[in-house]
Write a structure and sequence with these properties.
Radius of gyration: 12 Å
Strand order of the largest sheet: 1-2-3-4
Order of helices and strands: EEEEH
Distance between the termini: 25 Å
Largest sheet: 4 strands, antiparallel
Shape: globular
Oligomer: single chain
Number of domains: 1
Helix content: 10-25%
Strand content: 35-45%
Length: about 60
């Protein structure tokens, strides 16, 4: 899975199949801002899970808009 660039932020995904947990690292201008965690099932997280986590970041961080 590649990184997502959106509204000046970069979202880089990493995950563990063994633990069934993932994280999205949020960067702005190359600086680490926050880690967003999530759980999933299967061999890898579905793209919709990652999209939902990214969307949620913007919904809960009003100053991003």
């Amino acid at each position: 899975m590649g990184a997502i660039d959106r509204e000046g932020y970069r979202f880089e995904t990493e995950y563990s199949v063994i633990n069934q947990k993932g994280a999205i690292h949020v960067y702005r201008d190359g600086e680490f801002i926050k880690e967003l965690t999530f759980s999933f099932t299967g061999e890898q997280p579905e793209p919709t899970i990652i999209e939902d986590v990214v969307d949620s970041f913007f919904e809960t961080n009003q100053e991003c808009e």
